[in-house]
Specification:
Layout: E1 9-12, H1 16-21, E2 26-36, E3 49-53, E4 68-69, E5 85-93, E6 97-98, E7 101-102, E8 107-115, E9 117-122, E10 145-150, E11 158-166, E12 179-188
Antiparallel strand pairs: 1-12, 2-3, 2-4, 2-5, 5-11, 6-7, 8-10, 8-12, 9-11
Length: 189
Amino acid sequence: MPPSLPATFVADIMATPTAAQMGVQWKTMDAKIVEAKPVQGALPEIKTAYDIAPHAGEAGFDDSSWPAIKAEDLAVRRSGGHVAFVWYRTNLTIPAKIGDFDTTGAKAVLTVLVDDYAEIWVNGQMPRQSGYPSPATIQGLNMPNRVVLADSVKAGDKFQVAVFGINGPISVAPANMVWFREARIEFYK
């Protein structure tokens, strides 16, 4: 679980200077709802189920054809509103220093706040456990997701991050869009 205390240092990865220092290059793509075969054990009358495409959180996913966006453009409203899903992906590398802050040995926490919901994948995994708080999964309407990247980082540590932005509440089909309110790395020493 991420710490509840104030961070020692915060790196805003929605700002080009900090994003560039960490090698962050955001890419984005809409996700679509697609028909799928029902899972084993579904009632016999169920002939169709639904999934999303692409599954861009998985390890090894190729986003090379996706459009790149500036760090500041995470705040741009995307999708056509209603029931909508948008993938955001980046790689980031921990530098030895950010400004005067020495990152060595710090706990690094990715914090994102997506309007309206988000699911977070780190290095091809969505950290979650049934029956326990799971900061990588939906936290609530316009609530931040806070995922520990590592308990102790060093210069050169690399992370692949995929954020699945969801417009919501889904059953109300809102007339707004998907966008980031914040994206940062919090460091704790």
